[in-house]
Design goal:
Length: 93
């Protein structure tokens, strides 16, 4: 009885994990579509990746000071970028 319950719990966790992963992918795809709509309509400030001039200056200062990790961290805090996207953004500054 205990083994069946444990097995059922493991199966439940597996399916829950798969569902959460699928939902995260859907949210990411919708976010990209929304960002594209914002760009096309000229509303850059509504994009989830929008970085204000003040934050850009702060990040640029951190980057020039050799604090690349702090700069990437700041971008990630201000936007919904993942680590790779934030790193690429800071590198382009």
């Amino acid at each position: 009885m205990e083994y069946a319950l444990a097995f059922g719990f493991i199966v439940y966790i597996f399916f829950s994990y798969n569902e959460i992963t699928k939902l995260k992918k859907q949210v990411k795809a919708q976010e990209k579509q929304l960002n594209e709509c914002c760009k096309r309509t000229g509303n850059q400030e509504l994009c989830s990746y929008f970085v204000s001039d003040e934050i850009k200056e702060k990040v640029l200062h951190l980057k020039n000071s050799g604090k690349l990790t702090e700069a990437v961290k700041e971008i990630r805090l201000e936007t919904s970028m993942d680590l790779l996207e934030a790193k690429e953004y800071v590198d382009k500054l």
